[in-house]
């Protein structure tokens, strides 16, 4: 059983490593405009996360968006196999356009999942204890705000990733248009 657990752990670690490499790793994350827009929006929306209860918005909204995201990815993956084969070719790049597109969607899905898990965890961990020394309440107040800032930032980042996913779809649509044009040209050349 322990061997099976180790093998499973290695498999999970391997697939996460492949995703992270295809996404671009920390370089892609910290050089992303969306990352910093989410950070700015988190600061601007100070009133939303500074008080308890912000997690209810996350828990109520993200699962629906997550469902649409998964459906969108499924539609893309179900597209014409010739087009997918064209995108899957890496050429001179380390990561194929197909893998770059899928990893962008996976990143979007993961940030949404992390936002919901974080919100559920923070909601379940929020409670009050009476009769403690004043320093306890001061520390808890500050730590709560730090954790809430991080949680709301993850939520905002997952929401801003909507733009990334939309433009990934737009980019794929442009690639598909190019593919159709090339296919039509090749078909016309064969007839001549």
- Beta-sheet strand percentage? under 5%
| Main beta sheet strand tally, sense and closure | none
- Silhouette: elongated
Instruction: Tell me roughly what share of residues is in helical segments.
Output: over 70%
Q: What's the number of structural domains?
A: 1
Classification by helices and strands: mainly alpha
| Distance between the ends | 64 Å
Overall pLDDT confidence: 89
Radius of gyration: 22 Å
- Secondary-structure element string: HHHHHHHH
Total beta-strand segments: 0
**What's the number of helices?**
8
Report the uncertain regions: none
Oligomer: single chain
Would you kindly provide a written description of the structure presented here, covering whatever features stand out?
With 192 residues, the chain is mainly α. The chain has one domain. It is 84% helix and 0% strand. It has eight helices and no strands. Helix 1 crosses helix 7, helix 3 packs antiparallel against helix 8 and helix 5 packs antiparallel against helix 7. It is elongated and about 90 Å long.
Strand-helix topology:
Blueprint lengths: L1 H22 L1 H6 L2 H12 L1 H4 L5 H23 L3 H8 L8 H29 L8 H58 L1
From the structure above, extract its key features:
84% helix
Short description:
This protein is mainly alpha-helical and 192 residues long. It has helices at 2-23, 25-30, 33-44, 46-49, 55-77, 81-88, 97-125, 134-191.
């Amino acid at each position: 059983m322990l061997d099976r657990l180790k093998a499973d752990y290695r498999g999970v670690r391997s697939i996460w490593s492949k995703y992270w490499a295809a996404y671009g790793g920390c370089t892609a994350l910290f050089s992303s405009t969306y990352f910093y827009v989410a950070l700015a929006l988190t600061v601007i929306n100070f009133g939303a996360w500074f008080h308890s209860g912000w997690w209810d918005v996350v828990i109520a909204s993200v699962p629906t968006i997550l469902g649409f995201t998964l459906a969108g990815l499924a539609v893309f993956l179900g597209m014409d196999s010739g087009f997918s084969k064209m995108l899957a070719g890496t050429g001179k790049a380390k990561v194929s356009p197909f893998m770059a597109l899928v990893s962008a969607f996976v990143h979007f899905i993961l940030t949404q999942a992390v936002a919901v898990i974080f919100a559920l965890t923070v909601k379940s961990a929020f409670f009050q204890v009476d009769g403690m020394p004043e320093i306890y309440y001061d520390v808890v107040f500050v730590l709560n705000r730090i954790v809430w800032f991080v949680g709301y930032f993850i939520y905002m980042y997952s929401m801003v990733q909507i733009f990334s996913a939309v433009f990934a779809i737009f980019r794929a649509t442009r690639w598909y248009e190019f593919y159709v044009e090339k296919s039509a040209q090749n078909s016309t050349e064969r007839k001549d």
